[in-house]
Amino acid sequence: MSEIFKELKVEEKDLRECGPEIVELEEMLVLFESEHSLAELLLIIDLTPKEAPNHPIREPARNALIPIVAKLKMLKKETNISPEKQEQLRVKYMHLSRAVGIINNNKVDHNR
Predict the structure, then answer these.
(1) Structure pTM?
(2) CB within 8 A of 53, min separation 6: which ones?
(3) What is the mean pLDDT of residues 63-70?
(4) H or E element: which one contains 93?
């Protein structure tokens, strides 16, 4: 594999303090739940891939997950976050992600 495509790894001594960014991510998680009803998301069962981009509840929630997962990945790569805290935040994210679900055979799968 070319050197250009290898993932850049930040040296441990260059990692940022994770505290403020953990607070920011936790605020993002709380904001998601205040803006997107997990109960309503879990009620969405039948949805085709063609219908999904226009769904008034699911699509805004799906889009709101994008910066959350990006922040989670960045925390792991660029900060001194502990594996335990990383896992706690990942579990919280997965709770939200499962509410949004994944479309499979014109059904929303909330179990992945």
Answers:
(1) 0.86
(2) 59
(3) 98
(4) helix 83-100
